[in-house]
Amino acid sequence: MEWMIDTANLKAIKEAVDMLPVTGVTTNPSILKAELPFDYEEQLKKIRLLMPGCSMHVQLGSEECGAMLEEAADLRALLGKDIYVKVPVTENGIKAIRLLKKRGMNVTATAIYYPMQGMLAVSAGADYLAPYCNRMEQNEIDFGKAIGQMRDMIDLGNYPAKILGASFKNAGQVVRAIDCGAHAVTVAPDLLRSALKSALVTDAVAAFTRDYQRITTGE
Ligand code: E4P
User: Fold this and answer.
1) C-alpha–C-alpha distance, residues 25 and 160, integer Å
2) Options 1.10.3720.10, 3.20.20.70, 3.40.50.920, 3.40.1000.70; CATH of 2-192
3) Residue 169 near ligand 1, beta carbon < 6 Å
């Protein structure tokens, strides 16, 4: 099971890495835009430095296949060969995924709303598939069923691809994605931390602290 953080906020990344068992970081242009102003390449390098030994998934902004290949090569030169380039699963994207894999790059297929998109990305050689769980739910697409169907295809064909659930807005969605077969999830740090500090949890711990005080000091 892999837990990744879905953010480009340097403070949130640092706190999450210190506290949580995270194995990677994901961004997209909209997530990065929320952190402006910055120099794009410098911001990516800072994120990379904050997460040594973790996977970093950066989305390509280009739409044409040739431009995607160039952008991916630039990202690899900037961030290292272990970088994962996120490629939206469109016609151009699927073509780019096949060519990027031939060039030995790590690929995360993204913007997945339909199981068939994911299945095509698996056949094209993608390393991770990122279904957009909340957005699917908002569009009345059963993301749990879709994850299960993609997982069955991966397992039956013995493909190395992993499902990376993304676009979460509540803990129930995260748990359902994992339950339905996601190998990994990427979650905003605040949502991850919210599971650890609900009133039920903090009240229970406060009661234990009071009782500990009583049994150790008699007060
Ligand atoms: C991460 O890889 C995705 O791009 C992200 O989770 C999408 O989230 P959103 O639906 O909140 O934009």
Assistant:
1) 20
2) 3.20.20.70
3) no
Question: Do the Cβ atoms of 143 and 164 come closer than 8 Å?
Answer: no
28 neighbors 59 (Cβ within 8 angstroms): yes
- pLDDT by residue (tens digit) across 82-107? 999 999 999 999 999 999 999 999 99
Q: At what angle do helices 115-124 and 91-102 cross, to 10 degrees?
A: 30
Alpha carbons 207 and 101: distance in angstroms, whole number: 54
Q: Tokens 């272990």 map to which residue?
A: 82
- Inter-CA distances, 31 with 21, 57, 62, 92, 219, Å: 21, 12, 16, 23, 50
Give the residue, by CA position, lying nearest to ligand 1 atom 8.
167
pTM over 0.85: yes
Q: In testing the pocket of ligand 1, which one of 6, 9, 191 has its CB within 8 Å of the most ligand atoms? A: 6
Ligand 1 centre to CA of 167 (Å) is: 4
Q: Per residue in 166-190, pLDDT tens?
A: 999 999 999 999 999 999 999 999 9
What's the pLDDT band for 218 if we cut at 50, 70, 90?
confident
Q: For residue 32, what are the contacts with CB-CB under 8 A and spacing of at least 6?
A: 8, 40, 43
86 as an active site residue: the answer is yes
Q: Where are the domains of the chain?
A: 2-192
Query: Could you tell me the two tokens for 118?
Result: 């994911």
Cα of 131 from ligand 1 centre, angstroms: 9
Structure tokens at 82: 């272990």
